[in-house]
Amino acid sequence: MNTQRFLAAIIILTLCGAFLAVGMFVERAGANLPDLTTVSSSLEVVVAIEVGLSPTGVVYDSGKGEMFVANSGSRVSVISEDSNKVIANITVGANPTGMAYDSVHGRIFVANTDDNTVSIISDSNNTVVATVPVWGIQPKGIAYDSVRNLMFVANCVSNTVSVISGNNNTVIATINVGDKPVGVAYDSGKDLIFVANSQSPASDSGPGTVSVISPSKVVASYPGTPTDVPVVATIDVQGRPTEITYNSGRGEIFAGRLVISDENNSVVASLSAPQASPYSVAYASDKSIVFYGGPGNELNLTVWAVSDETNEVIATLDLGYQGGSSGMAYNPTTEVLYVAKGWQPLGSPGLVFAISVSSLPSAFPLPTASATPDSTPLSDSAINPSPSVPELAPTALLFLIAAVSLAVIARSKLREETSR
């Protein structure tokens, strides 16, 4: 009987030692890992909104609380922020792409790529009030200078920027820039226009540049016939930037993955994501976050949220559809990001995803991991990593050895009792 009690005690001690070792093993394995569950759940799709065929651009009208979406063909859809439904469709020029908002006069400017015009929409009745020839070929991006009431339109094939006066809706200047200009952004802090040129002058596959334009020099050259105005700077960049936006909080320009300081017009940083060239970009000044859209894991449409304090990814959302994003805009009133899916199968309606970013604070606490956060969607193994043998705690290992030793002693004791 005493032997049986002794053996039972040994077994209990062995099990306790094993469980303790495993527990300490798991605790040790996860001690230095960031809590990525908050990162993966910080972006949430509210609804997917059907618009026109293959949406190509998005802009937010803060005065009306509406999103304007340019669709391939000749239509602009208007989405209400209250219902997230299309409330109007507006016929514009052929293949509208880039858009800009005039908050002073309540106007939306639409660059029509295939007929080389800009449509001007009044948001009071959602109708086109003017159509302006751009004096260039394939207008893409557009930015608005509210101080001077000027539109700056990037002409992709002509390698020029047309300047349109909002007073009389005519071109007052043309500016030679880099090769294949696409995106345009207005820096209100420095009173400059930045243009993303997606191609190298020396090679079709080489890195692009960013041209810097002074609107004051444009005004100085007017009146008269359209006049060439020189750029004030050309910035060499890596990659082929197509989308560009202004960070009013830090006086920076985001061109593709690169960060440009408007103090000296030079590249000062590179973002950790996306890994592929982003197709769209938007800045949330209330959160100090830059949003990017493009193809991510398995070429799925992915949205990355990047802190402008650290230039690191703080949230990622895989939307589950293959392809890139052709446009995005942020609504600070509702804290919703609108992302246009760039391509749809023939006959299928285009989609704009309304994504809630309300859980992202302006100063998002970054993970303390030593590795740079990945741009791919988080898997179960990333959130709950499996422990590995090298992470076994020394103390836990001693408990395990002691438990095995007691088991060996118990076995020897049992043999002695049996032999008697």
Our estimate of the beta-strand percent is 35-45%
Q: Into which percent range does the helicity of residues fall? A: 10-25%
* Total of domains: 2
CATH architecture designation of the largest domain: 7 Propeller
CA radius of gyration is: 29 Å
Distance between the termini: 14 Å
CATH superfamily of the largest domain: YVTN repeat-like/Quinoprotein amine dehydrogenase
Strand order of the largest sheet: 10-11-12-13-17
Write down the CATH class of the largest domain.
Mainly Beta
Mean of all residue-level pLDDT scores: 78
Quickly give the structural class: alpha+beta
In the CATH scheme, what's the topology name of the largest domain? Methylamine Dehydrogenase, Chain H
- Supply the number of helical segments: 5
Residue ranges: pLDDT <50 for 5 or more in a row?
Answer: 18-41, 363-397
Which assembly state applies to the chains in this document?
A: single chain
- What characteristic shape results from the CA principal axes? globular
Structure characteristics:
Methylamine Dehydrogenase, Chain H; 5-stranded mixed β-sheet; alpha+beta
